[in-house]
Structures are given as structure tokens and as C-alpha cells.
From TrEMBL:
CDD domains xrefs: DRG, TGS_DRG1
Name of the gene encoding the protein in the UniProt record: DRG1
Domain TGS, residue spans: 289-365
InterPro entries tied to this protein: Beta-grasp_dom_sf, DRG, G_OBG, GTP-bd, GTP-binding_2, GTP1-OBG_CS, P-loop_NTPase, Small_GTP-bd
Protein's name in the database: GTP-binding protein
Pfam family, one: MMR_HSR1
Gene3D superfamilies membership: 3.10.20.30, 6.10.140.1070
Protein's organism: Linnemannia exigua
Keywords: GTP-binding, Nucleotide-binding
């Protein structure tokens, strides 16, 4: 029996089982089994497992990586060509793009790498089509553009989200606040700082026993579900922001456009006519959470033409120095900062100082 068959069997059993207090333990065990089988699909164990597939591995460039994911013929390649000027094969039939096509778009002084991924088909998470390679590349992105046909957005959105979730990609979610650590002995010790409405100790034990874990400390700091607990145990989940790009708005009425605009995290566009690209790029910038830092040489005006662009989590004086050159940090005496992160202009700071978007920094070296 193949892994895919086992997955289908478990999914069928879960669909048959009624959800209530008596069956919750059994369902928790089934969900854990399902997660383990999905992991096997992600990492083939056969000797001739093969590589990632021809044309799928792309070197990272720029400060952010945006992956276009969607069904065939929703306009991903047209959008890519108009945004970046990179030619990605465009035609009126499905599956025109067969490999990953990279391009770069310049925005706010930053280089953003754009990847046009081949169309996903339903069942990709079970190994159908080239879905496995497509989603493996999607896992390396900083932001996902889920490109949808505006005439059927919600049905397609649900299917693709299910495919991505099957591969451990969580869209627009934060990692659950659960502390989990295996230990040598002492059984399962469970604590919670908030009331748990979805889980109890027996369900947690059922999930852990499926992973052959009988000794562990587990602390819930959020009202977690069984799925979130499994995500923490698996430890290979990727949490990333996602924008739903609703393409082909030239084919719907103004009233329909008002309606689809209410979908959370959605940006309606028309790739063919280049409508609403400015909102798409500004939203992408916001979701990538980047900060532009301007340099100021001593005795000169700040250089606003080429900012140092940092991810928000590395936007400190230390990250700023390392981005320019590793040797600068060793010679750093202090830094002067102008901008919204400074209490007064300029503020004298050390390497731990957290920078804000559009701050100006002058590095003072040791003599």
C-alpha cells in the first residue's frame, strides 16, 4: 500500500467518524498519523529519490522572495512579465509554464525576487503533477502571491490553501504559542496558562503516543487545537504572509468588484491592462515587513538614492553593519541615528538599537 493510499484511507476514516468528546482522542491520533504520512511524501526516502526537478532550484537574490502560486491559466505569467519585464511563456492553454521562471522587480530602492511557479493542480500534496516541486520552492519564499481568477476566487482559494497546508505551509498565521520539550523520564507533564477548549490531557497523550513520545514537558500559552499541537511536534512548518491576487477584474462589474475587495488580504488587479499594480506592490512591501535605512557619511548629506534594505527582525545597528560589510561591526564605536526610532535627533546608540523604516544612520568607528 503506497503512502498516498494510506493517506486516502485515513482521510476516509476521519470523514466517517462523528466529532464528539468520545471520538476526539481517536481523531487526534488519526490527525497525527496523517501528518507523519504527509512528511514522508515531502521527504522521499527511496534511494533514487532524485533532486528537486529540472529548472526548479533558483538562487536567491534581493531582500525578499515572492512566489506566484495558482491554478494553470489564471494570469501568473502575464503578471510576471508586466511587473518585471522578464519573459515567461504566455498562451491561452493550460500548463504553459513548466519550470520556475525568476525575475526581479525594483521597489522602494529594494530588489524583490519574483518566481513564476508552474500551475498547481488539485491533489498536488499527494504527489500529483509537479505539485511537490512547486510547493517545495514555495516554502523558500518570503511572501506568497496566490493568483486567483476573479470569476471563481473562493473555490480555487480553498483548494490551493488545502494543498499548501498539506505541505506544512501556514498562510497569514502566527506559530502557536506552545512550549514542547522531550525528556528522558517522568511521563507527560502538561500545563496551560489559558483555558483549553479544544484539547485535554488524554487527547494530547493520544497524539504524543502516535509519535512514540511518552516523556515530555508541554506548556500551552494559547487555546490550541489538535492541528496546532501536531504542527509544533512536527517542527517543520513554515509560517508566511500571503496576498490573494484577484486577476482579470476587467471581466466583472463594479458591484462585483466591491464584493471581492472585501475578501481579507486580497488585492484585485488586471495583469493584462496593468490595473492596480501600485496597490499590489505597496501591499507586498507591507507584508514583507522591510525597513529602508539610509547611510550618512560624516560631514555629508544622507544618501537617499540607495538605501540599505533589511528584514524587520534584523533591523538593528548590528544587522545594518553586517549588511554593508562584516568588518564594520568590529570597528564600530557607536552610531548616530536620525528618524522615528531615535528619542532625539541625532541619538547616540549601540549595536542593539532597533531601527525603523527610513531612519538615517551614521557609523562612528574606533580610532
Amino acid at each position: 500500500m503506497t503512502t498516498v493510499d494510506k493517506i486516502k484511507e485515513i482521510e476516509a476514516e476521519m470523514a466517517r467518524t462523528q466529532k464528539n468528546k468520545a471520538t476526539s482522542q481517536h481523531l487526534g491520533g488519526l490527525k497525527a498519523k496523517l501528518a507523519k504520512l504527509r512528511r514522508e511524501l515531502l521527504t522521499p526516502t527511496s534511494a533514487g529519490g532524485g533532486g528537486p526537478g529540472v529548472g526548479f532550484d533558483v538562487a536567491k537574490t534581493g531582500v525578499g522572495r515572492i512566489g506566484f502560486v495558482g491554478f494553470p491559466s489564471v494570469g501568473k505569467s502575464t503578471l510576471m512579465s508586466k511587473l518585471t519585464g522578464t519573459h515567461s511563456e504566455v498562451a491561452a492553454y493550460e500548463f504553459t509554464t513548466l519550470t520556475t521562471v525568476p525575475g526581479v522587480v525594483q521597489y522602494n530602492g529594494a530588489k524583490l525576487q519574483i518566481l513564476d511557479l508552474p500551475g498547481i493542480i488539485e491533489g498536488a500534496k499527494d504527489g500529483k503533477g509537479r505539485g511537490r516541486q512547486v510547493i517545495a520552492v514555495a516554502r523558500t519564499c518570503s511572501l506568497i502571491f496566490l493568483v486567483l481568477d476573479v470569476l471563481k476566487p473562493l473555490g480555487d482559494k480553498r483548494i490551493i490553501e488545502k494543498e499548501l497546508e498539506g505541505f506544512g505551509i501556514r498562510l497569514n498565521q502566527k506559530p502557536p504559542n506552545i512550549y514542547f520539550k522531550k525528556k528522558e523520564k517522568g511521563g507527560i507533564s502538561m500545563t496551560n496558562t489559558v483555558p483549553l477548549t479544544h484539547l485535554d490531557l488524554d487527547e494530547v497523550k493520544a497524539v504524543l503516543s502516535e509519535y512514540k513520545i511518552h516523556n515530555a514537558d508541554i506548556s500551552f500559552k494559547c487555546d490550541a487545537t489538535v492541528d496546532e499541537l501536531i504542527d509544533v511536534i512536527e517542527g517543520n512548518r513554515v509560517y508566511m504572509p500571503c496576498l490573494y491576487v484577484l486577476n482579470k477584474i476587467d471581466q466583472i462589474s463594479i458591484e462585483e468588484l466591491d464584493l471581492v475587495s472585501k475578501i481579507p488580504h486580497a488585492v484585485p488587479i488586471c495583469a493584462h491592462h496593468e490595473w492596480n499594480f501600485d496597490e499590489l506592490l505597496s501591499k507586498a512591501w507591507e507584508y514583507l515587513d522591510l525597513a529602508r535605512i539610509y547611510t550618512k557619511p560624516k560631514g555629508q548629506l544622507p544618501d537617499y538614492s540607495s538605501p540599505v534594505v533589511l528584514r524587520r527582525e534584523t533591523a538593528t545597528i548590528e544587522g545594518f553593519c553586517n549588511n554593508i560589510h562584516k568588518a564594520i561591526l568590529r570597528e564600530l564605536k557607536y552610531a548616530l541615528v536620525w528618524g522615528s526610532s531615535a528619542k532625539h535627533n541625532p541619538q547616540k546608540v549601540g549595536k542593539e538599537h532597533v531601527l525603523a523604516d527610513e531612519d538615517v544612520v551614521q557609523i562612528i568607528k574606533k580610532v
